[in-house]
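My main concern about presentation is that the manuscript never shows what a single data entry looks like. An entry of this sort, consisting of the sequence and the corresponding backbone structure tokens, reads as follows:
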Amino acid sequence: MPVMHMRGAHYGEIAKSPGGFFFVWTLWALDGLGGFTFILSARGLWSLRRGQPR
């Protein structure tokens, strides 16, 4: 997600703007949460495929 939102942008300029640090921090937090969610979803689907509910 940060890659899509920050394409061609300069992190330093955005972080120095009013509310910019919070914006950049939020993007990175959402990126981490999205990756974690993707891993959990993949594990759940893999378990269903193997027929071993958890």
